[in-house]
Amino acid sequence: MEDDDRVKELKAFEATNAGVKGLTDAGIEKVPRIFIRPADELVEELNYGQSSVQVPVIDLGDDREKVVRELGKASRELGIFQILNHGVDAEVMDAMLDGVRRFHDQDAEVKKQFHSRDVMQKVKYGSNVDLYRSRAANWRDSLTISLMASPRLEPDDLPLICRDSTIKYVEQVTSLGENLFELLSEALGLKKDHLGALKCGLGRTFIGHYYPPCPEPELTMGTSNHTDPSFLTILLQDQIGGLQALHNNQYINVDPLPGSLVVNIGDMLQIVTNDEFISPDHRVVANRAGPRISVAGFFTGDAISGTIYSPVVSENNRARYKDFTVGDYISKFFARPIDKSGLDEFRLQDEDNPQILSLCNDTL
């Protein structure tokens, strides 16, 4: 009966087309039950400490050899870092944040034309991609622009209120992604075009998140702890903060740094690098301040031609993951709560790996 009541509450929330912002506009003082984290999760939270570790800040304008070395170190140890002198203009970033804010600040009736749960829809607005699969809804609304099925961005597909700012931002961040894939290829000891040749930056999804102020932030999350279903993620965040990355069972605050972008390794790159690079667990805490605005750009590889991606292995380094296609990886992502990592689904167990079985048999 409790599950039936929850589904009814979820459907009633979604039927408003107003998202979480609609709740705050209505002046609520208590977090609705569908957003409250389960008791066991709140207890588990006590096991996590707060880390004093600082997320690396890498200046892409430095000597290339130094940049490659620092990117490699950060990608292996934390999987997340901030970058400066990245080539995305400050005014373009500011306009993108403002455009996302203005879209979400519109009346629900205006945003309704984009409201959808269709994963194939190119541009859509909604709240919580895993609303009916998660144990607790997250305190955020999102505008999603998917360039996975087609890399071309059609201006008429975009909301007019943020059209120009989005086009400019996507163009510059796409160029930045191509540059980062070259630098990361070199950090792996490969030719600089290696990840580019794999079309790791072909598919892209940009999501403009809107985190309204929360009356009881200790009871819910802005975004649950998760890893990203991408090769690489480039994040633009405003100055409110709330992003945290998990390292050694402690959360690191990724504090906003003016002019910077946050970059993190995604699941697909961890698989392709065979665990050399780390896809970090990260989350966004709810906040009494707000709204917090962020824009996540996910580089998701080639979902168009069915490219098969495999871990890079050597004689002394067995494959730790199954081969995958982007389509298969993303479809599995949409079938589970976001706090369940896709790495677990694709990781090989010893009995799945013929190389390990052969080694075992040789020792009998």
Automatic annotation (TrEMBL):
The keyword Oxidoreductase applies. The keyword Iron applies. Keywords: Iron, Metal-binding, Oxidoreductase, Vitamin C. GO terms for molecular function: 2-oxoglutarate-dependent dioxygenase activity; L-ascorbic acid binding; metal ion binding. It comes from the Eukaryota. One of its GO terms (biological process) is response to molecule of fungal origin. Residues 201-301 form the Fe2OG dioxygenase domain. PANTHER family: 1-AMINOCYCLOPROPANE-1-CARBOXYLATE OXIDASE HOMOLOG 1-LIKE, OXIDOREDUCTASE, 2OG-FE II OXYGENASE FAMILY PROTEIN. Belongs to the iron/ascorbate-dependent oxidoreductase family. This is Fe2OG dioxygenase domain-containing protein. It comes from Salvia splendens.
